[in-house]
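User: Second chain of the day. Same drill as before.
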Amino acid sequence: MRIITSDACIREGADHLARIEPRFAAIIPDLHPLPLRLKPDGFGALLGAIVSQQVSVASANAIMGRLVAAGMDDPRAIAMASADDLRALGLSGQKARYAKALALADLDYPGLHHLPTDVVIAQLTQVTGIGVWTAEIYAMFSLGRADVFAPGDLALQEAARVIFDLPERPKDKALRAMAQPWAPWRSVAARIMWAYYATIKQREGIR
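Assistant: Same format as last time:
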């Protein structure tokens, strides 16, 4: 179970992917440095993922700022808070329920580091409000797993369409199958594709 810990790991993965996939080899030189993007793990990371669902980055940052200022980045505080308390800080009613479900889930965050990735995703998705995409992103960036992909991500689907000259965006199942040969570095493949997506959006004048 390879763990990404540094930029050297990203370079190793990118070199491997360039050797096995000519389309990656063609675009990687223009994408250096590829982002490391490691994040803290734990309750706060998953709470931030819930807050970020279907809102802009600026809005999510503002809401998380209010939660942190109110001491609501702690599971005990969230568990004791009322729905009105959480809505007053910017959470919708649905996200307030998700936050409380996460606080009450009593996840063993340190223990997740030692579990196989499929078990991590299975445990996380048992929590109301945590879907497969969120669990995969957590495994990728908060646990540093080198061989995770997130085929439900629209940016990855669009990047795949352009990089591999597909007639349309591949759906979740098709993109998951497409990514299989990129093991054991699928997390680095995702970073390559996200970086490429950012470049094509910039070329189109979209920020």
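Residues 43-142 form a domain with the Endonuclease III; domain 1 fold (CATH 1.10.340.30).

User: Great, on to the next one.
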